């Protein structure tokens, strides 16, 4: 009996968007309008690449970025939830599927000593170049028309489950915890014994509600959360059953 917990990162584990939080490092803590307006829907990673060039051009170094990123607040109750998962790790496999990047997530989790809670992190690969600029790549290529071009979370989840299955690992239930529009695609893949946990008031909850109103509800159970304590309460019930 093992459960798979799938977490989004921005606005789920942390209470902000890590990609916009880094702007606190920029001169006057803001980006020029031309750069800000250069974002095109579905091409967030390319946009962030330009942001990182701007920060590098303005002399923002790795240590300054790291100091800024590790001040990002965790979502209410999340520290307790991750502590609870750590104490019960034998029952939970835990992964992150996020449109952030490896550098930010690694910094934030290690600073709070939560990196060992997660078995794998699937996100856009990032690294510092020899000139000290942060660079970011698309996570993968995919054919899903519903998702941004750098990341289809459903594809990530399907491939992870296939690999686990090949190693003889199967899950009693998948619990998917997220907030954004790009979390809908993997939620649509979940089965009736699984559970989607959208954050209250965010895009994922609204999209799931809209599907129910359109009489094409998602196939799994849905439990809305506002504090990660709500998630912890559910997990406590789960492991008692």
Measured distance between first and last alpha carbons:
11 Å
Q: How many helix segments? A: 10
Helical residues, percent: 25-40%
Count of individual domains: 2
The share of residues in extended strands comes to 15-25%
Question: What is the third-level CATH name, the topology of the largest domain?
Answer: Rossmann fold
Keywords: Hydrolase, Magnesium, Metal-binding
Pfam family, one: Put_Phosphatase
GO molecular function: metal ion binding; phosphatase activity
Family: Belongs to the HAD-like hydrolase superfamily. PHOSPHO family.
Topology summary:
Layout: E1 3-7, H1 18-21, H2 33-36, H3 44-57, H4 62-69, H5 78-87, E2 92-101, H6 102-111, E3 120-124, E4 126-128, E5 134-136, H7 153-166, E6 173-178, H8 184-189, E7 195-198, H9 203-213, E8 221-222, H10 228-240
Parallel strand pairs: 1-2, 1-6, 2-3, 6-7, 7-8
Antiparallel strand pairs: 4-5
Pfam families: Put_Phosphatase (PF06888)
InterPro entries: HAD-like_sf (IPR036412), HAD_hydro_PyrdxlP_Pase-like (IPR006384), HAD_sf (IPR023214), Pase_PHOSPHO-typ (IPR016965)
Protein name: PHOP2 phosphatase
Structural overview:
GO terms for molecular function: metal ion binding; phosphatase activity. Substrate binds at residues 19, 99. This is PHOP2 phosphatase. Its cofactor is Mg(2+). Belongs to the HAD-like hydrolase superfamily. PHOSPHO family. It is a single chain. Strands 3-2-1-6-7-8 form a 6-stranded parallel beta sheet. It has a two-stranded antiparallel sheet with strand order 4-5. The chain is built from 10 helices and 8 strands. The chain is of the alpha/beta class and 241 residues long. The model has no long low-confidence stretch (mean pLDDT 96). 39% of the residues lie in helices and 16% in strands. It starts with a strand and ends with a helix. Helix 6 links the parallel strand 2 (92-101) and strand 3 (120-124). Helix 5 (78-87) runs parallel beside helix 10 (228-240). The chain has 2 domains: 2-16 and 74-239, Rossmann fold (3-Layer(aba) Sandwich); 19-70, no CATH class.
């Amino acid at each position: 009996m093992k459960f798979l917990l799938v977490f989004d990162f921005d606005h789920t584990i942390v209470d902000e968007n890590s990609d916009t939080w880094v702007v606190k490092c920029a001169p006057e803590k803001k980006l020029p309008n031309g750069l800000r307006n250069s974002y095109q829907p579905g091409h967030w990673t390319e946009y962030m690449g330009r942001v990182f060039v701007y920060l590098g051009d303005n002399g923002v170094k790795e240590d300054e970025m790291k100091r800024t990123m590790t001040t990002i607040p965790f979502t209410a109750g999340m520290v307790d939830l991750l502590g609870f998962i750590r104490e019960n790790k034998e029952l939970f496999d835990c992964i992150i599927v996020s449109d952030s990047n490896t550098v930010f997530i690694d910094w934030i989790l290690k600073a709070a000593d939560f990196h060992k809670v997660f078995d794998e992190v699937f996100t856009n690969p990032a690294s510092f170049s020899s000139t000290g600029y942060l660079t970011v790549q698309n996570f993968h290529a995919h054919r899903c028309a519903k998702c941004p071009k750098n990341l289809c979370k459903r594809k990530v989840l399907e491939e992870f489950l296939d690999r686990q299955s090949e190693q003889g690992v199967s899950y009693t239930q998948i619990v998917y915890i997220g907030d954004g529009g790009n979390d809908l695609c993997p939620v649509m893949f979940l089965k009736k014994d699984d559970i989607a946990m959208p954050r209250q008031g965010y895009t994922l909850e609204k999209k799931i509600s809209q599907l129910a109103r359109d009489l094409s509800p998602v196939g799994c159970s849905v439990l809305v959360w506002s504090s990660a304590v709500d998630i912890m309460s559910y997990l406590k019930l789960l492991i008692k059953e």
